[in-house]
Amino acid sequence: LFDSCLFLRDQQRFSFLVDLTAVDWPEREEGRFDVIYWLHRFDDSKRLRLRAVLAEEQAIASVTGVWSTANWMEREVYDMFGIIFEGHPGLERILMWEGFNGHPLRKDFPVEGIDTGAAIYPDVYPEGAGPVVEDENGGKA
User: Per residue in 18-69, pLDDT tens?
Assistant: First the structure.
């Protein structure tokens, strides 16, 4: 992937990475994730879309060495989907906090969310900031 992106940038003049995102297909046999790259060539305003299919635990090469704009985009995909970008200079969460349990854009992430600590620390977090579970006596836990 990295070499293909270098070729597209240097030989085909796709000098701008417009977007980098992912799509989750949990039931698909060929690979759970698509990593999507949108490239732009300013000479003639052409756009090119690349798609890489990955298995759930498979890593993909970082393209931050090709387009610096990939830095935060790869961090977002890592944070939301859990996809590892090998060779990334600082792959860490960008939207969720360190220690957050899970990846919110995966289709197996619970729709109702997860307990964020709002029920544990009501003086710190406002009402409704996370799901509240009632205990056996009907109180909030």
Answer: 999 999 999 999 999 999 999 999 999 999 999 999 999 999 999 999 999 9
117 contacts: CB under 8 Å, gap ≥ 6 = 124, 125, 130
Query: Is-above-0.90 flag for pTM?
Result: no
79: exposed, middle or buried (Cβ count in 10 Å: 0-12, 13-18, 19+): buried
Cα angle: 7, vertex 55, 95; to 5 degrees: 80
Backbone dihedral region for residue 87 (phi beyond 0: left; psi -120 to 50: alpha; all else: beta): left
- 40, 31 contact by CB (below 8 A): no
CA distance 132 to 50: 42
Q: How far apart are CA 109 and CA 118, in angstroms?
A: 19
